[in-house]
Specification:
- The protein is of the alpha+beta class.
- It is built from 15 helices and 36 strands.
- The strands form eight sheets. An eight-stranded mixed beta sheet has the order 29-30-32-31-33-34-35-36, with helices on both faces. Strands 1-2-3-4 form a four-stranded antiparallel beta sheet, with no helix packed on it.
- It is globular.
- The two termini are about 45 Å apart.
Length: about 725
């Protein structure tokens, strides 16, 4: 009895102490929330002693998102990452296999090539080119040039060559002739041209840099040739080249093709190809500047890439297996096994010689989010419900083996070629994301944080949350997350904001994210219980659960969400008099639909969501999945396009609605928002529409746009939802 009593007293004392600490922590503010740092890239060095990290953060003065590279070097003293580049336009770092260089893409202009240049923060961008920088220090310098963006690049296995792909370059004469005939007229599709893959000798590029390190070519010089000096054209394709990768034995290149305009209108545009570097070819004649003409017609000696896959899927995240024969990949949308259907992103590999595809760990219920190939097995971060944990697997037929780690979300896995060390990104509801380094996959729970980018957020009184489950009208069990206001964990009768994720193939769970799209932590800090439903169509609950929204694209998940709201009210968790709703992209679709199905929501905030499907099918850049979700193209499934569209029931809306849209969005055209605004205006429903100039679907151009979006949405929820602002 004494032992138990003592333990009970200790628990009470600790609970009180934790409560006092939480009360002493300041609340999260709008400014702090949008000063978060996102981790966009992670590459551990071949020896495992260094990690190069890509970050993205808002530059409010320049009105851009800065993309910078950082380098962490592990020594006995520990230490923090040092900033490796400062142009604000640097991304996609890749170590050379010998560890001597880090190559990366940069959109900096030639006048700001120096990493420390005071003018490097310019909002202006140039063409994306390959730069090199030594991990031992010094300035970054370009090794490619021209007006064409480098789409993708890869080191050779021996570090002596960089392979890269650009759109087939034109000579000055070709450009002048085209401009003379067409002026500023856009030839939609017909003027498109595919990519050429080049090989660049690294030693020669270093010699040129050493001979003229400060040379900046004038515009007139650049016009003479639009290809990097010394670059040899080795292959061409009528499509775009993404995810270029060299096989471990150095004999092959693999890449994923894409539509030239990057609109996903035909799944056959996206396939895996292999270039056999051992195939004999005549070297292409160089021009006076030492460059090669990339025209496939003029140079039939170019290697023709071999198509490896031929299916109704969009392949992504390529990795070579250690046997240099199999290529790992996952699927963004579609199915590798038959007619088009959306499944979760599973892990596959394809035999680059036979084309045979095999799925790994078929019995796993959720999607593979990230993965890395080690010497002995594959490490994955995979979702089951609201958790994204780390797993290992050695053979396709084996089940995923969960590794010992922390509850939360693992992402961006990177492994070392000559070390058991593993680097990864981790976050949970109470832990903003940082980069961690583990001595091996078996010691994930002993990993140490090597960055402190989001320390300011971690020191705030952050919301707590937990999963919540309910039963639907057809007997299914659906799950979601509840994010409580700070200091009110598991309190009752709270005003509730239902925040619907996009996708629909996505899910919310135990992670922390701070941006304009996922702002649950900020909404909770402002007094709302945030309900994040993982409705039918979400990942992490099996392929059958995912596909049950076909062809009822909004009505089935809409029922799931409303029944979740009903359950929360019935359980006394949500206040029925203070219910609000919102979402972006597919979350916007659902919000637009649900305000036609009920008047219980006091306020709605919606963005980039369609209200009809015919115009959206025509304007969307991913039309084949729209047709799949609705059972066919508009003329093949006319009634479904009508029945699943909010616009034909818009007269039922009574909810004050706030709308946002990117003016240049081609995923969900801004026309959908104008249509919704016009309908609500004509009905006399309180509404407001914000259109962000120059922005696409992801609002990635100007950080002020996302900040203003959330600021105004919070005000709208407060005004019509009846919850006083806490910040």
């Amino acid at each position: 009895m004494r032992i138990r009593k003592t333990a009970f007293v200790v628990v009470i004392v600790l609970s009180c102490a934790l409560a006092v600490v939480a009360q002493n922590k300041p609340k999260l503010t709008l400014d702090e929330f949008f000063n978060s740092v996102g981790i966009t890239a992670l590459e551990i060095s071949p020896d495992g002693n260094s990690v190069v990290i890509g970050t993205e953060r808002a530059d409010w003065d320049q009105q851009i998102f800065r993309s910078d590279l950082w380098l962490y070097y592990d020594d006995a003293k520990g230490g923090s990452p040092i900033q490796l580049t400062q142009s604000g336009h640097d991304s996609e770092p890749k170590w050379s296999p010998d560890g001597r260089w880090i190559a990366f893409l940069s959109e900096r202009k030639a006048s700001s090539d120096k990493s420390g240049d005071s003018d490097s923060d310019s909002k202006d961008e140039g063409a994306s080119q390959i730069y090199l920088i030594s991990p031992n220090g010094g300035e970054a310098f370009p090794v490619t040039q021209g007006e064409e963006d480098v789409h993708s690049f890869s080191w050779s296995a021996d570090s002596q060559t960089i392979y890269f792909a650009t759109r087939q370059p034109w000579t000055k004469t070709q450009k002048d002739d085209y401009k003379k005939e067409w002026k500023d007229v856009v030839q939609y599709r017909t003027a498109e041209r595919g990519d050429t893959i080049f090989a660049l000798d690294v030693a020669a590029a270093l010699a040129r840099h050493a001979a003229a390190p400060a040379k900046v070519e004038s515009d007139s010089d650049k016009q003479k040739e639009d290809v990097t000096p010394g670059a040899e054209a080795i292959a061409t394709t009528p499509l775009r080249v993404d995810s270029l990768l060299t096989s471990p034995d150095g004999r092959k290149l693999a890449f994923v093709s894409n539509a030239i305009n990057q609109r996903q209108e035909k799944s056959e545009d996206v396939e895996i190809y292999v270039v056999d570097l051992n195939v004999g070819r005549a070297l292409l004649p160089a021009t006076a500047g030492g460059t090669a003409n990339a025209s496939a017609e003029a140079n039939p000696a170019l290697i023709q890439p071999h198509r490896v896959t031929n299916n109704q899927a969009v392949e992504t995240r390529l990795r070579w297996a250690n046997d240099s024969r199999h290529i790992f990949f996952s699927v963004e949308v579609g199915d590798v096994s038959g007619p088009y259907r959306d499944l979760q992103p599973h892990l596959y590999w394809v035999d680059s010689e036979s084309g045979n595809i095999e799925q790994w760990s078929k019995d796993f219920i959720g999607p593979v989010e990230h993965y890395a190939v080690t010497a002995d097995n594959v490490l994955t971060s995979a979702r089951a419900g609201t958790e994204v944990q780390m797993y290992s697997v050695g053979k396709p037929s084996e089940s995923l083996h969960r590794l010992t780690g922390w509850q939360g979300t693992y992402a961006n896995i990177s492994v070392a070629a000559h070390s058991p060390r593993v680097a990864f990104v981790y976050s949970s509801l109470g832990k903003p994301e940082e980069v961690y380094l583990a001595e091996s996959a078996a010691k994930l729970d002993q990993a140490r944080a090597i960055t402190n980018f989001n320390r300011a957020l971690a020191e705030k009184d952050l919301p707590q949350g937990k999963p919540y489950q309910w039963k639907t009208d057809d007997g299914a069990t659906v799950e979601g997350m509840l994010i409580y206001p700070p200091g009110k964990f598991e309190a009752k009768r709270l005003p509730m904001f239902t925040l619907i994720h996009g996708g629909p193939a996505d899910a919310d769970g135990n992670h922390f994210e701070a941006d304009w799209y996922q702002w649950a932590a900020l909404a909770a800090t402002n007094g709302w219980l945030v309900f994040e439903p993982n409705y039918r169509g979400s990942t992490g609950y099996g392929d059958k659960f995912l596909t049950q929204i076909v062809p009822v694209i909004v009505s089935r998940p809409g029922k799931d969400i409303l029944e979740g709201v009903d359950a929360l009210v019935k359980d006394g968790i949500a206040d029925a008099d203070h219910l609000t709703i919102g979402g972006y992209s597919y979350g916007g679709y659902m919000t637009n639909w649900l305000i036609t199905q009920t008047t219980r929501f006091k306020a709605a905030v919606t963005g980039a969501g369609a209200v009809e499907h015919i115009g959206n099918w025509g304007n969307d850049d991913t039309t084949f999945d729209d047709a799949y979700f609705l059972g066919g193209r508009p003329w093949e499934s006319q009634q479904r396009y009508h029945d699943e569209a909010a616009i034909f029931q818009i007269d039922k809306v009574r909810t004050p609605t706030h709308m946002v849209a990117g003016a240049a969005d081609i995923r969900v055209a801004v026309l959908e928002d104008y249509l919704l605004e016009h309908a609500l205006y004509s009905l006399g429903i309180p509404n407001k529409l914000l259109v962000f100039p120059g922005e696409g679907h992801s609002l990635a151009k100007n950080p002020w746009h996302g900040k203003i979006k959330v600021r105004e949405e919070l005000k709208w929820l407060q005004k019509y939802g009846g919850v006083p602002a806490s910040n």
